[in-house]
Amino acid sequence: MSVIRVGSRESRLAVIQARQVMEAIRAAQPGIELELVTMKTTGDQILDRTLDQVGGKGLFVKELDAALLEGRVDLTVHSLKDLPMETHPGLPVAAYSRRADPRDALVLPEGTDTLDLSRPVGCASQRRKLQLERLFPGVRVEPVRGNVLTRLRKLDGGEYGALVLAAAGLERLGLTGRVSRYFSTDEMIPAAGQGILAVQVRAGSGWPWLSALNDPEAEACAKAERAFVRELDGGCSSPAAAYAAVAEGTITLRGMTAGGRTGEGTAPLEEAEVLGCTLARKLREEERHGG
């Protein structure tokens, strides 16, 4: 077998995530040769504007998609929450990793243990902003861009009173010691797919060993959550959020519309995607009729 080239963004977190996937591939297919290929995406380069101002989450995958389609890499690894809800039809997701911590976390400046509301809380999503304003009335939320380590430098430099970051990313970076508190998934509904890694391939790649990487529960949750947001036409500029959990063959999905309405539903595991669409339509109708 020739060398399998694994494409990744070049940030420290992205590389850690890609290497985790590579270790899982080697465990499933001993003796396989893998090469990590990193690249800077447009989303990594444009740091002076928010994502909704410059084209959305697709900016984090455009270069990786092109490399995969052109055969310069053989598979790509992404944080699922960074994948657009509509992916390229020729680049299916072949595996969903077992989910890491799906929660959001509050991070304070080094050496402090209380939230200073006189300074803004930095976060990069409208989803977090909407829910923070509910949790902390009067809070000032301002956008912050850059990778996790860049954001932490801005926080410790006094630009923000706190940050809200994905717990999974902090854990993968070995930075859980920076967490002041974790928000429960009821307090702050996560982004669709948060905590899950996605492996994309070219259609027809035919690598059966990739199935060993796939976690069926994570796949079901991902499909339910992404169907919910997709049904609401939610992109990176939308506050829409969704979080699913599986127990005894049943999936429970909690979602939030762009208008802030929340609700939940349950379904058999095999109907995960249908559940996402159904709950989105139900909440949208309730918003329209004020029910």
In terms of topology, how is this protein built?
Elements: E1 4-9, H1 12-28, E2 34-39, H2 42-45, H3 51-54, H4 62-69, E3 75-79, E4 93-96, E5 104-107, E6 121-122, H5 126-135, E7 141-142, H6 148-156, E8 162-166, H7 167-172, E9 179-183, E10 197-201, H8 216-231, E11 241-247, E12 250-256, E13 262-268, H9 272-289
Helix pairs in contact: 8-9
Concise summary:
By secondary structure, the protein is of the alpha/beta class.
Model description:
By secondary structure, the protein is α/β, with parallel strands linked by helices. It has helices at 12-28, 42-45, 51-54, 62-69, 126-135, 148-156, 167-172, 216-231, 272-289; strands spanning 4-9, 34-39, 75-79, 93-96, 104-107, 121-122, 141-142, 162-166, 179-183, 197-201, 241-247, 250-256, 262-268. Helices cover 32% and strands 22% of the residues.
User: Helix proportion of residues, in percent?
Assistant: 25-40%
Strand order of the largest sheet: 2-1-3-10-4
State the separation between the terminal residues, measured CA to CA: 59 Å
> Structural class, please?
alpha/beta
Structural shape: globular
Largest sheet: 5 strands, mixed
Cα-atom radius of gyration? 19 Å
Number of strands: 13
Low-confidence stretches: 43-51
Q: Tell me the fraction of residues in β-strands, as a range.
A: 15-25%
Averaged pLDDT? 91
Number of distinct helices: 9
What is the string of SSEs from the N terminus onward?
Answer: EHEHHHEEEEHEHEHEEHEEEH
